[in-house]
């Protein structure tokens, strides 16, 4: 069965310092993995997507994530946090559903950025 | 501009009332989805539709109904049978290419019970 666990419900960093948001997944086959960001009372925006090509995936706004099969992890990182990065981040794993794909969402990590 | 629109932004429901949330997309996507988001939780799938005039139940379909009469529209009705409807509702769409395509999300509708 597919599942995804976000290891931290809240992460707080100072502006200009690195960001690490942790995600572990469980999948019975090679998964597709996503990170989405949600600003307050807004819809979700795709940050990046892994689909079995390069294991290091670069996304928008300077974010990147590395797929590590041996660790079943897909952690999201950014070298230097900006105030505008404050939001909720969701790690997502997919599985096949009929002829489509279902998204399974983690419970989210709220990123706080201190000035 | 291509995208997904949801209306209204806020919706208030009285006890025993059915309400309908609108979702429209001009991305020419075949598949559309409805999710419910509760505080501190990820999204849960209510219904999805892969093609016009066809839809399937998701994980939490009880108390909800949908229709897909047009490719670009996928309205969600929250019926009086849904006893805890207060939540943030998100609509999404994706192309159907046989792979794990990205889902694109609308801005959401927040439903509150009076």
What features would you describe in this structure?
By secondary structure, chain A is an all-beta fold. Chain A contains no helices and twelve strands. In chain A, the strands form three sheets. In chain A, strands 2, 5, 6, 10, 11 and 12 form a six-stranded mixed sheet that branches. Chain A is globular and about 45 Å long. The model of chain A has no long low-confidence stretch (mean pLDDT 91). Helices cover 0% and strands 49% of the residues of chain B. In chain B, strand 5 and strand 6 (54-57) form a beta hairpin. The mean pLDDT of chain B is 91.
Task: Name some characteristics of this structure.
heterodimer, A: 115 residues, B: 114 residues, mainly beta, 7-stranded mixed β-sheet, 11 strands
Element string of chain A (H = helix, E = strand):
EEEEEEEEEEEE
How many beta-strand runs of chain A?
A: 12
Shape of chain B: globular
State the share of residues found in helices of chain B, binned by percent: under 10%
Approximate strand percentage of chain A: over 45%
Radius of gyration of chain A, CA atoms, in whole angstroms: 14 Å
The value of Rg of chain B in angstroms is 13 Å
How far is the N terminus from the C terminus of chain A?
A: 41 Å
Which chain pair has the greatest contact?
A: A-B, 25 and 30 residues
Principal-axes shape call of chain A: globular
The amount of helix of chain A comes to under 10%
Question: Whole-number average pLDDT of chain A?
Answer: 91
List the uncertain runs of chain A.
Answer: none
Please describe the biggest sheet of chain A, giving its number of strands, its sense, and whether it closes into a barrel: 6 strands, mixed
Low-confidence stretches of chain B: none
